[in-house]
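Friendly challenge for the regulars: who can give me the structure tokens for this chain first? No prize, just bragging rights.
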Amino acid sequence: MSVVASTDPRHRLQVIVASTRPGRSGPVVANWFRDIAIAHDGFDVELTDLATVDLPLLDEPGHPRFGNYQHEHTVRWSAVVDAADAFVFVTPEYDYATPASLMNALQVLANEWAYKPVGFVSYGGISGGLRGVQMTKQVVTTLRMMPIPEAVVLPFFARQVDAATGEFVPGKDSEVIASQMLDELHRWSVALAPLRQPQPV
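First reply, four minutes later:
Bragging rights claimed.
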């Protein structure tokens, strides 16, 4: 378990399940990572599933940079993102790319993402979702987020799902890497905190 200095402010980490497909494995992987994040003790951790958020495809009439949302589902999503200091996206790749559900969740908002670091837990076959992550990094930088280099990559992850319990049980190395990513995510969250403060008009 990593030790974070007690003088650091308590930051809020939002772990987001990116895939919304029926039968997906995202929640299994996300539950594993959430438990590691709680044990890490650097953040107050919340887990959000985009399947539950249930955002329609870009249905707001105005540009998101104005924040003049017309739909309650967007208002609720805005509040979730705005309250967080840092993010971890738990994501597969679809056709070498970002899942459409994650792209929509990112692009329906704008200012709420700014000056917040983001880490990735990606899973899949031989690539472990890395190609989709690389595409997503280009998008989040445009939203003024900081995608950190440290990441958890889980190739052939299905082999590590316990057939009896349905739990994701990877090797110890994955836990160590996850903890190291959380260390770095916390450093960036603290460093970027002044930029997240309201600016005088």
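The chain is about 35% helix and 15% strand. The domain at 11-20+27-193 is CATH 3.40.50.360 (Rossmann fold). Your move, everyone else.
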